[in-house]
């Protein structure tokens, strides 16, 4: 194993595990604001208790997000030193901004929201929920800005020593790539939050426990779920995809498995990319659809990988192809499932439709998979570049950190994260079994 | 600009040490100072609402270092690879064990998490001290600005030392004792009764130990890197910094003795400030000295970011930190008084 591979795996593993938590944090934060707002308007106890219940799960989830997030900032320096040396002047800024603008705000209001309900007015408690939501979404924004600059560098020039420096604060923040990616990503987080909420509701209804809350969770989860599942494909996914096609054409060709340039290109629904023969094995293709999706006409020419020199093809091409297809396939399933669920909800039948409750229950892991696959699509699609068109991945890792040292800490993280995953599952399952009816606001907590 | 950013980053690091420092100290103390679950709850509650915000100073400071001095960030983080990874694991263990202990109602598991929390806190203090000592001693920088340090070699400072040698171990001990003392003073503010009295009494032996260790570390620093004295000899007015260390220590003792915990705690803050400022001034304008010859030093002018980056950074940084200080003041003002007297 080369040092480059170890450093890539190191970042990939830690960031993949990390992002299991923030996607729920960001999605749930919005849904908790919804619950709190309804509670404020209706003064129905159920909504307050529902918000408290999800607050407890949010609190656990948040801790795991924080502790697994710290390594990410460090790893830019530890594992990707040469990249950091050259690009720190640009991407260090949004990373520092995340701390300054988001983390301070979050840390101030999270404690108030989770543990201060008894000491705050209803309006102030609602306000603290809004601030927590805002903090988590600002945090996401700065991370997307960082990634967007690596995907689509803007507002920079280079110093004589090769370092990048940022020329405009607003152009860096309003990078069009970043705005599109942000909308798509945040919608994805809401999908995760909605599916988790609906699944817990379905679990309670199927098990005959806390039926009042089961109905609330299914209702909110399905309404938010159908809106976000549609929005993740159209408009956010559609717009983002078109932008990628224009600016990273080799990535799109690899994602779609388009080895040869075609006029009226079809879309591959299924099949295995074969790099040897440069074709898709066992293909199931719908004609002309890809041209239409990218250019709005069935006759347009779509560039295949044959238009690009081999050293500019995304590395690990099959993984990119599968990641993209898993994301898109699951996204389609989410829309179908949630439209049917929303229909049943509208007809007032969903709480008795056990088959649908079962589907909602077992579907909750899928948005996690789809969000992860989406990020893999973005990051593997950027390869072989670390900064698209400017710096290759092979030029960015820490040359002084040997493969042996890198593997040592990667194994350490794997062990530690296995433990954390176990702990998280136990704690969240415990909260779900206790249910929303207990009155504990964690009064025995270290925060009180 | 370089001078300004040097001190802005330094201030953020001082902010982190002063604030998260007492969290670490309380973490160490709760291992042996508390006698029952109620006292343990009280001591943990004294840091519960603030530790997360305190840790943000590390992230915000790290991010600022990253964009203002990219070469230093890249060189130091990759060169100190192994200890930094261990620090990350300790930060993870500390945060998880502190936050989650009360989600578990089985005594055995709580005891396990409490043990992890205390040990991780203590080791973090040791690593931070050793890290600072590594910077003061210097590292084997190559001409390209990079290096890699093993965890230990022959325990001697020299051209090719390890992370741990006799000098950096002293640095680790200074930090452990200083932050434990800092945490004890925090407890005298935030808890009451027996625990408060025990914390106050513990300050005395800790103070004596810290006085000795501070003296030893000053002598050792001059011995390991005589150039540390250059700035002081060149600008004798800067001897105000070591004088500040001594005055802070004296006031700390007096105020603790007179049962004025807030003042004593602030004296501990100024002690930490002067120690760190003294260290910064000892290396300035070098950011990371080389043991392989001064030509390889990472200096301020060599590491500083481009002018546009710094101009853009200064605009949002000033605004953002003013906002952040507002949040911090808000949190601490809501959290005034004894943490064990809120009626739970």
Give a structural overview.
The complex is a heterodimer of chains A (448) and B (344). Chain A has 14 helices and eight strands. Chain A has helices at 3-42, 45-78, 81-115, 122-151, 169-173, 176-207, 211-233, 236-247, 249-256, 289-295, 317-346, 354-362, 365-382, 403-434; strands at 156-158, 164-166, 262-263, 267-274, 279-286, 301-302, 385-387, 391-392. In chain A, strands 1-2 form a two-stranded antiparallel ribbon. In chain A, strands 3-6 form a two-stranded antiparallel sheet. In chain A, strands 4-5 form a two-stranded antiparallel sheet. Chain A is globular, with a radius of gyration of 23 Å. Chain A starts with a helix and ends in a 14-residue tail after the last helix. Helix content of chain B is 74%, strand content 1%. The model of chain B has no long low-confidence stretch (mean pLDDT 93). The interface between A and B is large, with 76 and 72 residues.
Mean pLDDT of chain A: 94
Helix content of chain A: over 70%
Give the SSE order of chain B as H and E letters: HHHHHHHHHHHEEHH
Strand order of the largest sheet of chain A: 1-2
Largest sheet of chain B: 2 strands, antiparallel
* Net shape of chain B: globular
Give the strand content of chain A: 5-15%
Query: Which sequence of strands runs across the widest sheet of chain B?
Result: 1-2
Helix and strand sequence of chain A: HHHHEEHHHHHEEEHEHHHEEH
> How many strands in all of chain B?
2
Kindly provide the name of the CATH class of chain B. Mainly Alpha
The average pLDDT score of chain B comes to 93
Main β-sheet description of chain A:
2 strands, antiparallel
The span between the termini of chain A is 49 Å
- The number of distinct helices of chain A, counting runs of at least 4 residues, comes to 14
The termini of chain B sit apart by 50 Å
Give the helix/strand class of chain B.
mainly alpha
- Could you name the ranges of chain A where pLDDT drops below 50 across 5 or more consecutive residues? none
What's the alpha carbon Rg of chain A, rounded to whole Å? 23 Å
Count of domains of chain B: 1
CATH fold type of chain B: Formate dehydrogenase/DMSO reductase fold
């Amino acid at each position: 194993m080369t040092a480059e591979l170890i450093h890539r795996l190191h970042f990939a593993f830690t960031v993949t595990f990390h992002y299991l938590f923030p996607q729920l944090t960001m999605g749930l934060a919005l849904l908790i604001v919804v619950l709190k707002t309804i509670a404020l308007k209706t003064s129905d106890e159920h909504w307050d208790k529902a918000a408290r219940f999800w607050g407890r799960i949010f609190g656990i989830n948040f801790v795991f997000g924080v502790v697994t997030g710290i390594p990410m900032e460090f790893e830019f320096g530890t594992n990707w030193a040469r990249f950091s040396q050259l690009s720190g002047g640009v991407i260090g800024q949004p990373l520092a901004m995340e701390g300054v603008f988001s983390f301070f705000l979050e840390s101030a209001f999270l404690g108030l929201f989770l543990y201060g309900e008894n000491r705050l007015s209803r309006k102030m408690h609602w306000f603290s929920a809004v601030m927590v939501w805002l903090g988590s979404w600002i945090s996401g924004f700065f991370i997307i800005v960082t990634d967007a600059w690596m995907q689509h560098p803007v507002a920079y020039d280079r110093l004589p020593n090769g370092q990048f420096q940022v020329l405009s604060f607003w152009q860096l923040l309003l990078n069009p790539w970043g705005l599109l990616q942000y909308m798509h990503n945040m919608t994805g987080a809401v999908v995760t939050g909605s599916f988790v909420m609906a699944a817990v509701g379905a679990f309670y209804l199927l098990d005959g426990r806390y039926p009042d809350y089961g109905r609330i969770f299914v209702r909110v989860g399905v309404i938010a779920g159908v809106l976000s599942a549609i929005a993740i494909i159209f408009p956010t996914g559609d717009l983002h995809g078109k932008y990628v096609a224009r600016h990273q054409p080799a990535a799109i060709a690899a994602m779609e498995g388009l080895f040869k340039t075609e006029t009226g290109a079809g879309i591959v629904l299924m099949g295995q990319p074969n790099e040897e023969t440069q074709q898709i094995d066992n293909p199931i293709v719908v004609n002309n659809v890809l041209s239409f999706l990218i250019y709005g006409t069935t006759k347009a020419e779509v560039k295949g990988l044959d238009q690009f020199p081999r050293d500019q093809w995304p590395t690990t091409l099959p993984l990119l192809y599968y990641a993209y297809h898993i994301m898109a396939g699951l996204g389609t399933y989410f829309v179908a499932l949630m439209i049917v669920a929303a229909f049943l909800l509208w007809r007032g039948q969903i709480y008795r439709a056990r088959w649908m409750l079962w589907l909602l229950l077992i579907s909750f892991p899928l948005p996690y998979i789809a969000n992860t696959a989406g990020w893999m699509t973005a990051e593997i699609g950027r390869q072989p570049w670390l900064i698209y068109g400017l710096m290759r991945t092979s030029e960015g890792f820490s040359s002084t950190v040997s493969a042996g040292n890198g593997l040592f800490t990667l194994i350490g993280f794997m062990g530690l994260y296995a433990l954390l995953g176990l702990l998280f599952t136990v704690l969240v399952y415990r909260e779900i079994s206790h249910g929303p009816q207990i009155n504990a606001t964690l009064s025995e907590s270290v925060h009180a | 600009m370089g001078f300004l950013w040097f001190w802005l980053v330094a201030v953020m690091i001082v902010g982190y040490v002063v604030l998260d420092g007492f969290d670490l100290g309380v973490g160490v103390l709760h291992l042996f100072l508390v006698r029952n679950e109620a006292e343990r709850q009280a001591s943990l509650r004294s840091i519960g609402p603030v530790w997360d915000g305190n840790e943000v100073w590390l992230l915000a400071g790290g991010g600022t270092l990253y964009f203002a001095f990219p070469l230093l960030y890249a060189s130091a983080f990759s060169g100190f690879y192994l200890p930094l990874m261990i620090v990350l694991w300790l930060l993870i263990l500390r945060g998880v064990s502190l936050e989650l202990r009360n989600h578990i109602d089985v005594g055995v598991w709580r005891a396990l998490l409490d043990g992890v929390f205390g040990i991780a806190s203590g080791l973090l203090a040791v690593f931070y001290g050793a890290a600072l000592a590594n910077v003061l001693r210097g590292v084997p920088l190559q001409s390209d600005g990079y290096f890699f340090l093993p965890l230990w070699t022959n325990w001697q400072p020299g051209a090719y030392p390890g992370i741990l040698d006799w000098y950096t171990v002293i640095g680790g001990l200074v930090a452990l004792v200083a932050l434990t003392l800092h945490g004890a003073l925090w407890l005298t503010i935030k808890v009451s009764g027996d625990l408060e009295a025990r914390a106050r009494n513990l300050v005395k032996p800790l103070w004596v130990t810290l006085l000795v260790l501070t003296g030893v570390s000053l002598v050792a620093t001059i011995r390991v890197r005589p150039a540390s004295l250059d700035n002081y000899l060149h600008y004798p007015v800067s001897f105000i910094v070591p004088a500040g260390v001594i005055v802070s220590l004296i006031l700390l003792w007096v105020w603790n003795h007179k049962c004025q915990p807030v003042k004593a705690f602030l004296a501990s803050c100024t002690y930490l400030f002067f120690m760190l400022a003294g260290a910064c001034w000892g290396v300035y304008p070098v950011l990371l000295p080389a043991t392989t010859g001064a030509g390889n030093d990472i200096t301020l002018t060599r590491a500083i970011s481009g002018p546009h980056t710094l101009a853009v950074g200064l605009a949002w940084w000033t605004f953002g930190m003013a906002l952040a200080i507002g949040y911090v003041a808000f949190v601490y003002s809501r959290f005034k008084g004894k943490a064990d007297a809120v009626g739970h």
